[in-house]
Design a protein that fits this description.
Blueprint: H1 2-29, E1 37-39, E2 44-47, E3 53-72, E4 75-76, E5 80-96, E6 98-108, H2 116-119, E7 125-133, E8 138-146, H3 151-154, H4 167-172, E9 176-185, E10 189-196, E11 211-218, E12 242-257, E13 265-283, E14 286-296, E15 301-303, E16 309-311, E17 315-325, E18 330-341, E19 351-364, E20 368-381, E21 387-401
Antiparallel strand pairs: 1-2, 2-3, 3-4, 3-5, 3-21, 5-6, 6-7, 7-8, 8-9, 9-10, 10-11, 11-12, 12-13, 13-14, 14-17, 15-16, 17-18, 18-19, 19-20, 20-21
C-alpha cells in the first residue's frame, strides 16, 4: 500500500517537473511582453501596443458652498445654505481599431446631475457617442450627447467662468438627446446638425415626432487658439482679436416635456421651436460673450382630465458676460441675465434678472480653480397682482479634475 502511494507521488512530481520544463522552453520562444503606452497630457491616456485602441480617462468634481439671502423689508436674511457636491463626472474617450472611429462616454454621480427629481431613477449616463471621421472636415456620430445648442451649453460645465451657467441657459437650453449628429468644419465656418428623439436623456421609447437642430458658426478672424471658442475666459491670451458668431434653430415635434428634452411632463404633446444667437470675442486676456434665446409653442398650456395645468416654458432671455484675466491668473467676471416669459404664461412664471460679479483663481487652467461670485437676483411675479422679490446669492466653489 505504501509502495503504491510512493509510486503515485513520484509519478505526480515527475509530471509537474516535465510540465515546468516544457513551459519554460515554450516561454523562451514567446515574443517579449508588450505593454500599453501611457501619457498624461490630458488625463490618463492608454494606447494599445498595436495601436488598435486608445482610452483617455478623466474625472472632475465641483464642491460648493452657497448662501441664499432674501430681502425682508429691506433687511437681508438667510433663507438657505447650500453645501453639496455640485458635479462629479467620469469621462472616457478615445478610438477603436482606427483613429477615425472615436467614442465619448461621460457618467455623472450626484443627485442633481442625474435629474433624479424628474426621472425618479439614477440617470447617470450623460454621453455615449460613437463618431466616424470621414475626412478632416466632415464627421458623423450616433448616440447620446449634447445637441448643438447655445454656446454656453455647448461649453463644458468644467470650463465656465462662474460656478454655473446663466438663468437663461437653465430655462431654455436644449441639452442632450439621442440621435444622429453631423459636423462640418471649413476654414472659417462650422456647421452642425442633429436629428434626435426630442425626449431627452436615456429614454426607453419615443413617439413618432423627432427633434431637428442645426447650428452655424462664423469665425471672421480665424480659429481661436487651442479651441478657445469652446471654453469661457481668455486663458490663452489671444495675440490677435478672435470672434465667433453663432446661430441655432431647433424644432421639437410632438414632445411631452415642458422644455422639449428637459423639464416636467406635460398632459398633452406639443411642438416647440427654439431660436438662439450668440457672440464671442476674446483678445489679450479680455473676453466678452452675449446670448439671446427664445422658445415658443403655438399652444403652451396643457390640461389634465381634472383640469390641472402644466405648460411649455415659453419665453425669451438674454445674457451678457465679460471677464478679464490678470497676469497672476486671477480673473474678474461680470454677468447680466434677464428672463421674460411670454404673455401666455406671464401669470405662471416670474420675470427674473440677475447681476453677478465673480472672482476666479486658476491654478491649472479650468482643471484646478477656485471660484466665487455674488448675485443680486430680482424676481417680478404677476400672479395675484404684481410684486417684486429680491435676494442675494453668494457661492464659493472649488473644481478639481484631470
Amino acid at each position: 500500500m505504501n509502495s503504491s502511494k510512493s509510486l503515485t507521488t513520484n509519478t505526480f512530481i515527475s509530471l509537474i517537473c516535465l510540465l515546468f520544463v516544457l513551459s519554460g522552453a515554450h516561454a523562451q520562444q514567446l515574443p517579449p511582453t508588450q505593454t500599453p503606452y501611457f501619457q498624461y497630457s490630458k488625463g490618463l491616456e492608454m494606447t494599445a501596443p498595436d495601436s488598435l485602441f486608445k482610452m483617455n480617462i478623466r474625472f472632475r468634481m465641483q464642491n460648493r458652498f452657497a448662501f441664499h439671502s432674501p430681502f425682508y423689508e429691506d433687511r437681508l436674511g438667510l433663507d438657505q445654505i447650500e453645501a453639496r457636491i455640485r458635479r462629479l463626472r467620469l469621462r472616457l474617450d478615445g478610438f477603436i481599431y482606427s483613429s477615425k472611429l472615436t467614442y465619448v462616454i461621460q457618467l455623472s454621480f450626484t443627485r442633481g446631475d442625474m435629474d433624479y427629481d424628474v426621472t425618479q431613477f439614477p440617470n447617470i449616463i450623460r454621453d455615449a457617442m460613437v463618431i466616424y471621421q470621414f475626412s478632416e472636415k466632415f464627421s458623423m456620430g450616433l448616440g447620446q450627447t449634447k445637441l448643438p445648442g447655445n454656446r454656453q451649453r455647448v461649453n463644458s460645465s468644467g470650463d465656465l467662468q462662474l460656478p454655473d451657467r446663466s438663468i437663461v441657459n437653465a430655462a431654455f437650453n436644449i441639452d442632450r438627446d439621442f440621435g444622429i449628429q453631423a459636423y462640418y468644419v471649413e476654414n472659417r465656418f462650422v456647421l452642425r446638425g442633429a436629428i434626435s428623439t426630442g425626449e431627452g436623456r436615456n429614454i426607453l421609447s419615443t413617439d413618432p415626432g423627432l427633434a431637428y437642430t442645426v447650428r452655424g458658426e462664423v469665425l471672421p478672424f480665424g480659429h481661436f487658439s487651442n479651441g478657445g471658442d469652446y471654453f469661457e475666459g481668455d486663458l490663452m491670451r489671444e495675440k490677435s482679436p478672435k470672434v465667433s458668431l453663432g446661430i441655432t434653430y431647433s424644432y421639437n415635434n410632438n414632445t411631452l416635456r415642458s422644455g422639449g428634452q428637459l423639464g416636467y411632463y406635460l398632459y398633452e404633446r406639443r411642438d416647440i421651436e427654439t431660436r438662439m444667437a450668440d457672440l464671442l470675442f476674446k483678445f489679450n486676456g479680455f473676453s466678452l460673450s452675449a446670448e439671446y434665446i427664445e422658445r415658443n409653442s403655438s399652444d403652451p398650456l396643457t390640461f389634465s382630465s381634472e383640469n390641472e395645468l402644466r405648460y411649455v416654458s415659453a419665453g425669451k432671455g438674454k445674457n451678457f458676460q465679460m471677464g478679464y484675466l490678470l497676469p497672476s491668473n486671477l480673473e474678474l467676471v461680470g454677468r447680466f441675465s434677464r428672463l421674460v416669459p411670454f404673455p401666455e404664461i406671464r401669470f405662471l412664471e416670474e420675470e427674473v434678472s440677475e447681476f453677478t460679479i465673480g472672482l476666479n483663481k486658476y491654478l491649472k487652467g479650468h482643471r484646478v480653480k477656485l471660484q466665487s461670485d455674488i448675485t443680486l437676483q430680482n424676481l417680478n411675479s404677476f400672479q395675484n397682482g404684481s410684486h417684486n422679490k429680491r435676494q442675494v446669492i453668494t457661492r464659493f466653489q472649488i473644481e478639481v479634475g484631470i
